[in-house]
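ok here's Calcineurin-like phosphoesterase domain-containing protein, seq below lol
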Amino acid sequence: MTIKRILAFTALVGAAALAWGYWTATSSPVVRDAEVNLVPPGSSDRQLRVLLLSDIHVGGPDMSPTRLLHIVKQANALRPDAVLIAGDLISDKHFATRSFSFGEAVSPLRDLRSRFGTFAVLGNHDHWRDARAAEAAMLRAGINVLSNNAVRAGPLVIGGLDDAFTGHDDLGATLRAMDALGGAPILLSHSPDPFPHVPSRVKLMLAGHTHCGQIRLPLVGAISYMSEHGAKYACGVVTEDAKTLIVGAGLGTSLLPLRFGAVPDMWIVTLNSP
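and the structure came out like this:
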């Protein structure tokens, strides 16, 4: 085989890999399921369904508001009782073909439908772009924005921990707010990193941020999980000290509009009465 043929073959394989990575990044999110015993005994709701969305990262070329609207329709078809969004609404990719305002990015989310409403925390990209603009856009869309505080949602109390990656989190304040309201506790955080510090009375924590690695190569593994704990809390369901952490792979992408070995996903978490 000549050098030219080798180079042509290498270029073809590289192009095919990039096409596969982009196709994966723009595919419909996989719906993953988990169950946690959380609904308090005696509640009129014996079972609740909570939907976790994370890392939406609206930005061209892979996540347009139009694509997000299709994902919202997919989410509504799951008929959740509450929707929890774990931050990073927008994207600042190195190779972005288009940047969107928070208003444009959040607009499709106003169509989310659930019994108790939609709740969200900010992520590092939201803080880096403009936290106030992010919060204002979500409020206009009817989304409850939580920043180291908590809110009741039926028998649930949802605590929202502001972004730990940028140092805006205050776990103590969030826990105090949750304790004051009572109810079955769920902690929503952009990053999973605070999980070891969460007391066992908080049985469920939901997070994103890691993208489950986003680009996980054979033999090499993930390039980075952007977590101080490495792969320990980077993806899926983790049970530790009588509490459960669920980390979503997210919907959009960061840095590059590609995904290898970490497909987009959303989680429907069924909360049962013990």
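fwiw The mean pLDDT is 92. kinda neat tbh
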